[in-house]
């Protein structure tokens, strides 16, 4: 991280000086202003990289200042961090809505401040794995290292926004984690690839759905004439489960997706692609500030000599994941194993390697492992994929993330 030119605007001079001291010691050059009314002029003159502003100030408050900055073309590219003694979720959200890059409560320990600032300025997405196995949860000795839960993956943004991909049994651990954090008025988008059991079955065990004040949007592909709402409600029919959809305490919205592109809050772009799998199954690509993560499961790439091999589909898929920073994808089978499971809707190592290499993705994450594969088998799958990439002289970095694995993109 290079040294930053920072302007602190806060009517509390003492606090500002302490921050100036700490941030200067970390190599940044820091200027202080105690009156917000001069802030715009100072920003236009000195062109800092980052503004740190308080919310509650006389005359022009921090949120209004942030809003004016975002409307000023001369200040394009300026990063804004709002700091406030009021650490309410409402204020955090309001700051982000006004265009702030991040929010830091004033109660933060001063030694953590410089770290937090760097994180907000870099604005990385945090990719976390909560379940990496396909088809069926596999508890026991064979899954201690990679974990035994079915798909659930989150992408969290520095602004606090949260995307949840699939609601396999891994979502239970995510639920515990969020409940422990106790974030009030939690908002998240839940993006379902498709409604096979291993991708939706643990949704009713996601406790934040039952908490009033929280808000979720559940999206996914319709299945012919069945909407996402109907699909989720059906698995909570009282024959199968004692709690119905109506008992969710949070505000829940449903959204039926097709192959399309849409944006969340103007800066997170989501692209979807219909995958090669029984029924309608969507792959997702998240584009954010020049970086991208693709979540492509479940997906069958047929071998080239199979009658169902479709070069147009493969070309579309390569285009969809092209240049991604991370491709998370269905690598259910070893090649010999796949030959006995053609038409089951999943891919084998060699086809996944081919895709990652052809699309020039930076990192390939092997995902959705067969329930009959133990940890050692996943190790072998990873070694096989890496060997195949080396043979192709490929620059793709290949990993097999385990449950709890965290990546900053
Ligand atoms: Zn699956
Ligand atoms: Zn499936």
Distance between the termini: 15 Å
Under the CATH scheme, which architecture of the largest domain would be assigned? Answer: 4-Layer Sandwich
Tally of distinct domains: 2
The value of Rg in angstroms is 23 Å
> In terms of structural class, how would the helical and strand content be classed?
alpha/beta
CATH topology of the largest domain: Metallo-beta-lactamase, Chain A
Helix content: 25-40%
Low-confidence stretches: none
* Number of beta-strand segments: 19
Number of helical regions: 12
The dominant shape is globular
The CATH superfamily of the largest domain turns out to be Ribonuclease Z/Hydroxyacylglutathione hydrolase-like
**Neighbour order of strands in the largest sheet:** 11-10-9-8-7-6-19
Nutshell version of this structure?
With 409 residues, the protein is of the alpha/beta class. The chain has helices at 13-25, 39-46, 62-70, 89-98, 110-122, 171-181, 197-200, 228-235, 311-321, 335-338, 349-359, 375-391; strands spanning 5-9, 29-33, 50-54, 79-84, 102-105, 126-131, 152-156, 162-165, 187-192, 215-221, 251-257, 261-264, 268-274, 282-288, 291-296, 326-330, 363-367, 397-399, 406-408.
């Amino acid at each position: 991280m290079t040294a930053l030119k920072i302007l602190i605007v806060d009517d509390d001079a003492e606090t500002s000086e302490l921050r100036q001291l700490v941030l200067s010691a970390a190599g940044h050059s820091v200027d202080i202003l105690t009156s917000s009314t001069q802030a715009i002029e100072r920003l236009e003159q000195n062109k800092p990289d980052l503004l740190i502003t308080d919310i509650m100030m006389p005359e022009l408050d921090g949120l209004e200042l942030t809003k004016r900055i975002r409307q000023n073309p001369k200040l394009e590219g300026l990063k804004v961090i709002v700091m406030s003694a009021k650490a309410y979720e409402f204020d955090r959200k309001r700051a982000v809505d006004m265009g702030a890059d991040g929010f830091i409560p004033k109660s933060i320990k001063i030694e953590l401040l410089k770290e937090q600032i760097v994180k907000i300025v870099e604005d990385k997405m945090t990719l976390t794995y909560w379940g990496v196995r396909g088809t069926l949860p596999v508890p026991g000795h064979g899954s201690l290292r990679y974990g035994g839960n079915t798909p659930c993956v989150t992408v969290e943004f520095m602004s606090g926004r949260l995307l949840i991909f699939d609601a396999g049994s891994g979502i239970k651990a995510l639920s515990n984690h969020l409940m422990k954090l106790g974030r009030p008025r939690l908002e998240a988008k839940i993006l379902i690839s498709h409604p096979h059991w291993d991708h939706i079955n643990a949704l009713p065990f996601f406790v934040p759905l039952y908490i009033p004040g929280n808000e979720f949007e559940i999206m996914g592909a319709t299945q012919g004439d069945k909407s996402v709402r109907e699909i989720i409600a059906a698995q909570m029919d009282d024959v199968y489960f004692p709690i119905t959809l109506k008992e969710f305490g949070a505000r829940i919205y449903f959204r039926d997706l097709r192959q399309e592109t849409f944006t969340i809050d103007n800066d997170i772009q989501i692209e979807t692609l219909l995958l090669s799998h029984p029924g309608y199954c969507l792959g997702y690509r998240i584009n954010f500030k020049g970086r991208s993560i693709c979540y492509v499961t479940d997906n069958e790439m047929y071998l080239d000599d199979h009658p169902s091999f479709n070069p147009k589909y493969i070309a579309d898929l390569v285009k969809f994941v092209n240049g991604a920073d991370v491709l998370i994808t269905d690598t259910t089978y070893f090649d010999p194993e796949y030959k006995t499971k053609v038409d089951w809707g999943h891919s084998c190592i060699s086809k996944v390697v081919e895709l990652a290499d052809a699309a020039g993705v930076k990192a390939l994450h092997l995902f959705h492992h067969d329930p009959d594969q133990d940890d050692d088998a996943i190790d072998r799958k990873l070694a096989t994929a890496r060997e195949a990439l080396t043979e192709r002289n490929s620059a793709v970095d290949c990993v097999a993330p385990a449950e709890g694995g965290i990546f900053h993109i």
